[in-house]
Amino acid sequence: MDSSTFGSLKLNFEGYPQGNTVKALAWMPHDRKGPWRNDCCVHTLLEVLCGGYMLEVHPFGGICMQSIEVTRRSFESAKASAAAWFGRFMADHALVVSDASLDHSLVVSDASVDHSLVIGQEFPDVETCRRTLKDIAIALHFDLRIVKSDRSRFIAKCSKEGCPWRVHVAKCPGVPTFSIRTLHGVHTCEGVRNCHHQQASIGWVARSVEQRVRDNPQYKPKEILQDIRDQHGVAVSYMQAWRGKERSMAALHGTFEEGYRLLPGYCEQIRKTNPGSIASVFATGQENCFQRLFISFRASIYGFINACRPLLELDKAHLKGKYLGTLLCAAAVDADDALFPLAIAIVDTESDENWMWFMSELRKLLGVNTDNMPRLTILSERQSGIVEAVETHFPSASHGFCLRFISENFRDTFKNTKLVNIFWNAVYALTAVEFESKITEMIEISQDVIPWFKGFPPQLWAVAYFDGVRYGHFSLGVTELLYKWALECHELPIVQMMEHIRLQLTSWFDERRNMGMRWTSILVPSAEKRILEAIADAHCYQVLRANEIEFEIVSTERTNIVDIRSRVCSCRRWQLYGLPCAHAAAALISCGQNAHLFAEPCFTVASYRDTYSQMINPVPDKRHWRSQVREQKVEGQKLISQSAHPRLVDHLGGPKRRSYVWRTLSGQKGSSMWSLSYVRAFSKEMHNANVKVVKSVFSFYPSAIAIDSMVCL
User: Fold this and answer.
1) Which residues contact 307 (CB under 8 A, 6 or more apart)?
2) With a threshold of 0.70, does the pTM exceed it?
C-alpha cells in the first residue's frame, strides 16, 4: 500500500499530560478494564477517528503515545470525524483544541496544567527547581538527565542522544532564588516508550500522594498505584507506592521511632495542661525499649466518679503497625448509654502481667473513691489474666463476662435455633424461678445441654444468678470503639495515635456537654423513653396498697410486691436496671408520685451534665515542648517490631514475597511475545496455592505487534 495516495491525520500529544489522556480515552466505547490499557485506548481512539475501521497504523511513541499517525483512504472524512469527536471531547472535558489545518494536524493540550518553562523563570531554591523539572519530565514523558547540580547551578538535558532539549538554572546573586538562564525547550525525540519513568522516584510518589494521605491515613498502596497511573500515566511498583506512603506519613506525622522518643515529653505535657490527669510511660531493658503507656484525663476521672453508673468495661485491640502492640481500655457508660472512656493504655504485648499492671493503675486512679461508690461491676472477656487482675485489685467488685463468646459457643455446639432462642430467654430471666423454667425447656429438647451447663455455670452468663448490676449490658460496647481506633491509628506514630484519641475525646466532651445543656427533662432521652413505656404498661395492673411504702400489683399472670422506699420490686427489674419497672410505675402513679423522680441518679440530665462538666485541655505542639526529659528517651520496641522492609509485612499492607516466572503466550520457549506470571509466596500452609497471570506487557512496541493487537475492530 502506498501511503502517499492517502490523506493523513496526526494527533500530537506533546505538552499534554498523558495520564489525563489515558483516563479520558478510557471513557470511550470498547474500553477494556485493566492495568495495561494504553493499547486498547489507542485502539478506541483510532476506531472513533476512522469511522470504525483503519488500514494502517504507525505507532511512533509506543505505549506512551507521544504521537500517532493514521493513514486512510479519505482524509476529508477522517478530518471531519476527528474534528467532531474533539469538539465533543472538548465540551465534555474542558480541553482546548487548536486547529493546525495547514499541516493537517490537531494539537490537544490541557488548559488547566502549565508545564511551560521560560528564560528568567525563578524558583525559591534549587530543590524546588529539581522537583519542578522532574514533574515536567513526568508530565511530558521524557527522561531527564542531570548534568550538573550544586549550590549555585542546576543543568539538565533530555536523556535521549541527539535531542536538543536542555535547561540551565543558576542562583541569583544576593538572594536564595534560582532562575533559568538558558533554555532549549524543543524535543526531537520520541520520549519515553513505556509507562515506567526514571523520575517517578519514591520521593516523587510521596509528594504526589501527600494531600490524600493527610486526608485519609488508610490510603492503600494499591490505590496509590491506580491513582498515579490514572492521573500521571506512570506505572510505579507496589514497593514504590508503599515506601512513598511511608515517607509521606513520616513527613506529616514524624517517624515511629521519633514518636517513642517523644513519649516522656508528651506525658509531661498532659500532666501540665490537664492537672490531675495521669500520664506515665515505662521502659525496660538496657536499651530503654518501650513497654507500657497509661493515660487517663482528669475530666474522665471526675465524670466517672461523680456522675456515671458504677460499671466498667475492659477490652483490648491489637495494633498492627511498624511496631506491634496492644491497646487496652477501661470505659464507663454515661447516663444516655454512650461509652465514656476512662483510661487508655498501650502495652508491648497482651499478657497476664500487663493486665495486672493495668488494673493496678486503674485502682490507683480511682483510689479511695471506690470505697464511697456503689458496688462496682466490671465486664470483660472470660480471660484468665483479666480474671486474676480483677480479683487482685478489685476484690469487692462484681465481675461479669461478655455474652458474645458464651452465646457463640452455645450456638456452635447445638446448632439449634429453638434452643438458642430459649437460651437467650434464660439469659434475660430476672428471677431464679423464670430461669429454671427455661432450663427445663432446654433439657426437654436436648439432654446434651446438661454437660454444657457444667462447663459454663449460670453465674457467668445468667442475669438471675449474677451478684452485681449490669444495667442491661450483656456484651462489650468498648470492643467496637477499640477496633475503630486501632484501624484509624495503626499507621500513626504512638504520640500521634494518642493525640487522635485525645482529640476525639475532646470532641465528644464538647458535643455532649452542649447537648446536655439543651435538654429540659428530668431524665436523659433513653431513660425517659423506658419510663414512658413502663407507665403505659402500668395501666393494665390492679394496685392494692398495703401500707405507706408497700404495694401489691396484681395482673392476670402474677402478683408482684413493690417497696417504693427501698426502690425494690419482686420482679427485680427495678433493682437490676436502675429505672422503675411497670409494677413500680403503677404503684407510684396510684399514690400520686412522679415515676421519673425514682430513677437512679445516674440517669438524670443533671448527672449527664456533670459527667461532661470538666474539659480536656489542648496539648501544645511538640515544637513548644521544653526538653526537660532529654535523658529519658524511650526507644521503639526493637525486639518485637515489624521489619522496616515491607516485604515481610504481608498483613500490614506491604507487598507479599513474589517469585517472578516468565512464560511465553504459547507456553513454549522462543515466542516473541511474553506474558508475566508470578507466584505469591504464602506461608507453608498456602505454598503454591495462588498463581495469578496478568495481561501481556510490552516495554517496546514493534509496528507488527501494534497492528496485530489493535486492528481487531
Assistant:
1) 334, 335, 602, 607, 608, 610, 611
2) no
